[in-house]
Amino acid sequence: MPSDPPRILIVDDEVNICRNCEKILSKMDCAVSIAQNGHDALTLIEAEPFDVVVTDLKMSRMGGMEVLRRVMEKDPDIRVIVMTGYASVSSAVEVMKIGAFDYLPKPFTPHELRAVVLQAITDRMTSRQNHRLKNSEEAARPIAHQLIGNSPQIQKVVSMIRKVAPTDATVLVYGESGTGKELVARAVHANSNRKDGVFFAVDCGTLSGNLLASELFGHVKGAFTGAHREKSGIFRLAHQGTVFLDEISNISLDVQGMLLRFLESQEFYPLGGTTLQKVNVRLIFATNQDLQNMAAAGTFRQDFYYRIFVYPILIPPLRDRKPDILPIAYHFLNQFCRRMNKSISGFDDDAGNRLMAFDWPGNVRQLRNVIERAVIHCEKKLITSADLFLRDNALAEPAMPESIPQTNEALKQAKKDIRIAAISELEKKFLTHALEQNNWNVTQAARQTGFQRTNFQNLMKKHGITIPHRLRMPPG
What we know:
The protein contains 19 helices and 14 strands. With about 475 residues, it is of the alpha/beta class.
């Protein structure tokens, strides 16, 4: 059910200004009403709900200042924008103190009016969503194999999962790093006829060609150096289940050929073996690369690309589905509060707005990490902006010493400590970013950044960075 469009009230004693504002805002998805004095405006507000009020400051019957005061008394959540041709610093300060959302000097351009109204609508919607999530059980419900959010983009993904899950069709999930590709794969499995079977997740970026082939197809004793015993591969173990192959852009051309043959027949030979084995396994693939361009460049087999491109599901980045940010944040908040035995009821409005305004280059994975750190840091009932450590995509500022240094030596030591802390934070972010960009493949991350693998690993150990558990291979 689509939500009602935002309702805007324009208040000015000059009818031409009211009509012009109405015409300008008609290009937005909103419902606009007009009133030609403060009394009529308050009467309308009593009778109908409004999200934003745009009022002139100087009017013959009840000025904008009084309209602002009355509106704030009735409903502080209404966003009030005050426009005036008598702009001054003192009047701007006064209306902002009373509770105005913004101050718009006349004359203004259509773009300026639409921009400030859009900001007010966004702020109002974010605040309402935040309060609803804080005071409802919606955010507290456990989520199992589901994508969180009600945006049109994620609902399209959910609809596609619902359609393809009951079939045995091969699925290709693609999207940026951290968007939740494995979650989609698990949702397909959980809603399929194979839901009682096993689900294997394999990160193809962490295994070389022969090792990956051995893990998937198994091997016989003596198949290669170090093969001291027979090993059952994942495909054999996953009979009647689902295998999720993540980051398939890293698979060698030879293994792509083996997978292509397996997809056609569900039959395979273990490495070094002569006995044909047949299984019933569903394959789900995932990537954050453009496989079509790779196929055109010859670094990915075209026949394999066309074979797996049966039912592609695109997961949009978090920045393109803003309405999902707060529900996801509340899900993680409740999750970490349970783990840490904390009682945090939600985010204050400023923190909610910061979460919504942030670009989230690391997508849901980055949001999860930010919320976990905020829960650790927060000592109150609500998480504030200070707990989020967001600096508009920049590094967090280094922490200041608890007390002011009293001597030259103490000052030198404090400066040294701040410098070390800043470098440490930079190194950690550098490593994490490189690993996320390469889907936690240490070898590729080291190569991309110009490090020797051992030096890169030593830096990881220094900062306590380990491969997330969900990305590790299941035991063979």
